[in-house]
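anyone seen this seq b4? input:
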Amino acid sequence: MEHVRLIAAIALSLAIFLVWDFFFVDRRPVPPSAPPVETTERAPERTETGPGPITDERMEPKPPGEELPTHVPDHTFETISVETGLYKAVISDRGAAIIRFDLKEYRENPAPDAPHMALIPESNRMGTALVGLSGTDEPLYRQIFATDFTGRELKVENAPETLSFFWQSDNGLILEKRYTFYPDKYNIDMTVRVRNESEGIIDRNLSITMTNPPPDDSKRFTFSGPFIFIDQDLNQVKISDIQEKGTYSGSIQWAGIEDNYFMTALIPREATNTSVVLAVDERSNLLNSTFQQPMNPLAPGSVSQFDYQLFMGPKKLSLLQEFGYDLDRIVDFGIFSVIAKPALWLMNAIHDNIIANYGIAIILLTLLIKAVFWPLGNKSYKSMGEMRKIQPLMMEIRNKYKDDKKKMNEEVMNLYKTYKINPLSGCLPMVVQIPVFIAFYRMLSEAIELRHAPFMLWINDLSAPDRLFDFNVTIPLMAQPAGIPVLTIIMGATMFLQQKLAPPPGDPMQAKIMMMLPIVFTFIFINFPAGLVLYWLVNNVVSIAQQYNVNRKITQS
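predicted toks r here
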């Protein structure tokens, strides 16, 4: 039967797509951690574009007799701790780098006493937001910076706070690196000022490097690694592709490193025609994203100032939209964004205004979607029910003309015309549901709102596969921890029940394929996020109720 073939083709295509994504998509394993090795700083290429030097008239006035702090060999501090309502950062005097960044609202795992999420972990001993200058004898990330801050801790509570670091070369070049922290924002203002106090022209290049261990890029459908927003286009570069192409040039609006839920990004205040250079040092297990800042030659007594923002926080769509600079483009659902983004908004609206449980929000959102497609579903199930009624006649035709396929097909089509049945109308809801399913898959896989979000009973993380118990063993093709996927098994049972309600295919081979589909899908869904399994389960249960009701009416008519 044509409708059965189409249903089988659609279902098998979706199954193949999911199997391929899970088991055959190239996923580069993250190399094991090794003691960090300092790499040689790459001198940025000279360019003719970019901001020119700022004259003395545009500099901030300096009180008479005040000298900029410079490095002294017996500096009395090594790190400064900065704490806001959202994070705790540690900044080292070595390169004035951010060497630790813990998010206070997020944890490493669902346990309530788990460590806070370390966006810059201890394994990154180089730190991030590293400033570089071409032509220096030693890379700046090795230099000790002085500061005018006298304490070891900086609390940012009611108003922004500024922390400045200074370094001076032997030939009179002074570099200031200034951070401004906000009490309730993830973004940090960073200003770099280069002053020429020598008697000659200084011709250097500036660079800013974001560095971190390479993120795990094994997540299905989601991207982890370096990104560059260049010429209004998002480039997400696979770590395995960096060696082939590591330099990206154009009008760069932001660049950085992301994983499934978090990101560190450097955002120039104004997009600049320049380059970002990507590199991986496998010895130190560090990924570098270097923004090359063009800087014109500095005349004696002049200053060049460059203003940036650092965004170090969650990839939460509403938060990024509020931030601006098109940073919300980093949450990329691909061609399914037209479905995924409204679905994400609706899910959050239900959670924030109706019930503060994302599992129930997913259930209510599923019911809302089913309500939208309810008339279409009724038409489909009515067609399938009518197909079931003429099954005996279909079998007679198949037995009578089993040796004449052409005549069999003609008689089957005549049977459809006689009973005014369109065999393809029963497949329409499945065709419509596939893009919705994939959009949900992407949304639920990337929505940070579901990270560590509990539902009920044993399901304490809707972004992870559901597992009842932890057997502390390794089961092939099952993501850790290995346990009983209760929700997934129930979902498979509902798929089997749906198959029983559908009209049986006349071809025995098609019947076997259709009966295998619930097993195949159950096997695939074992490693799916619990939130997605919950959506599919609720969708199946409502579909079964709707189909049973339509079949009952057809039987009684």
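The radius of gyration is 30 Å. The CA atoms of residues 412 and 418 lie 10 Å apart. kinda curious what u guys think
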